[in-house]
Write a structure and sequence with these properties.
single chain, two-stranded antiparallel ribbon, 5 helices, globular
Length: 129
C-alpha cells in the first residue's frame, strides 16, 4: 500500500477510488448504475481532495463537498440525460429539483457521504506525503 501511495499521484488514486465507489453506492442504493457514474465518482473524489486541502473548517468542507458532487451530477445529467436523451435518471418527481437532474434531498445525502470521503482524502493525502 505504501508503495502505491508513493507511486501513483494522489488525484489519480482518488479518481479510481471514486470511480469504483460511486457506482457501488448506487448499486446498493437503487440496484443499478451506469458507466457515467464512474466518471461522476472519480471527478467528485478529486474535487473532494482539493476541498480537503483547504483551510476551511470540516463542516464547511462537507458542505462544499455536497455542492461539488451536486454540480458534477448536474453537469453530467445535463449532458447525458438532457443533451443525449439517455434517461439514466430523472429526479423530476423529487422536491426541490433542478431540471430533474439534481435535487435537495440528494444534496443532503452527498453532505453525509462527504464526511467520510473528505476524511479519506485527507488520510490518503497525508500518507502519500
Amino acid at each position: 500500500m505504501k508503495l502505491l501511495l508513493h507511486t501513483v499521484p494522489t488525484p489519480i488514486l482518488l479518481f479510481v477510488l471514486g470511480a469504483v465507489g460511486y457506482p457501488l453506492i448506487e448499486l446498493l442504493w437503487r440496484g443499478r448504475t451506469h458507466w457515467t457514474m464512474s466518471l461522476a465518482g472519480g471527478v467528485s473524489m478529486v474535487l473532494l481532495l482539493y476541498i480537503s486541502r483547504t483551510a476551511l473548517p470540516l463542516p464547511a468542507m462537507w458542505f462544499a463537498g455536497a455542492l461539488a458532487i451536486t454540480a458534477v451530477e448536474f453537469a453530467i445529467g445535463c449532458a447525458v440525460n438532457l443533451g443525449l436523451h439517455w434517461e439514466i435518471w430523472d429526479y423530476s418527481n423529487l422536491p426541490l429539483n433542478l431540471l430533474g437532474q439534481v435535487c435537495l434531498p440528494f444534496t443532503a445525502v452527498w453532505f453525509v457521504l462527504s464526511i467520510p470521503a473528505v476524511s479519506l482524502c485527507q488520510i490518503i493525502d497525508r500518507a502519500a506525503g
